[in-house]
Amino acid sequence: MPKKKIDRSLQKFVGTSPFFSNIIESSADAIVASDRDKKIIYFSKGAETLFERKSEYVLGKSVLSIYTEESMKRESRRARAREMKKKGIIRNLVMEIETPTKQAKSISLTISPLKSSEGKTIGTVGIARDITKELANVRELSYLKKLNDKIFESIPEGLMLIDLKQNILTVNSGFERLTGVEKNQVIGDTVGRAKNKSQAERFIQKNEV
């Protein structure tokens, strides 16, 4: 894409206000704008950090080139186009990217139309942030929960998990076996109400809950 065309498109995007331009440039989020031909016309400093690419090397190139082939499959792009047409915006789309150094990252991407001062759609604007660490934490917590649940269920003694208000959160299979009361009969009950169930009452009294 000729540099003059990029400059004109860029002016349409950031406007003439230095204040507005500074806000965009100082944002930690990646901001990428592309024209109707999917050519990149703006690539913020946050985008340079996230995608590990300098703006001078991506301006004028296809915006599809900064994402993985998997995320840019035709079916996925068509689904996003339908959502954009229906809702006018795509929020918090989770995607995987790969940097030039082969580092995999997870991003949360919001895409909206780029409009001219006359209200005409002239391209799209994508705002992305790095959620790699957040997703790793979620996966780790999910793994630990599954491990905890497995240990909880494997203990032969009857166990009951309650909160500070004496509400029963869950019981293990040992509890069901010893009391003859299924977990769906006591989960959500308070310990006091559970005592009305004959077998559970003996278990609770014995363990002094």
Describe the structure.
45% of the residues lie in helices and 23% in strands. It is α+β, with helices and mostly antiparallel strands. The strands form two sheets. Strands 2-1-5-4-3 form a five-stranded antiparallel beta sheet, with helices on both faces. A two-stranded antiparallel ribbon has the order 6-7. Strand 6 (160-162) and strand 7 form a beta hairpin. It contains ten helices and seven strands. The protein has helices at 3-14, 18-26, 45-51, 55-58, 74-87, 132-154, 173-179, 183-186, 191-194, 198-207; strands spanning 30-35, 40-43, 90-98, 104-115, 121-130, 160-162, 168-171.
**Strand share of the residues?**
15-25%
Mean pLDDT: 81
Structural class determined from secondary elements: alpha+beta
Q: What is the helix fraction of residues, given as a range?
A: 40-55%
Gyration radius, in Å = 27 Å
Number of domains: 2
Strand ordering within the main sheet: 2-1-5-4-3
Number of strands: 7
What form results from the Cα inertia axes?
A: elongated
- CATH domain class name of the largest domain: Alpha Beta
Helix run count = 10
SSE order, as H and E?
HHEEHHHEEEHEEHHHH
As residue ranges, the low-confidence spans are: none
Give the name of the CATH superfamily of the largest domain: PAS domain
Main beta-sheet annotation: 5 strands, antiparallel
CATH second-level architecture of the largest domain: 2-Layer Sandwich
What fold name goes in the CATH topology slot of the largest domain? Beta-Lactamase
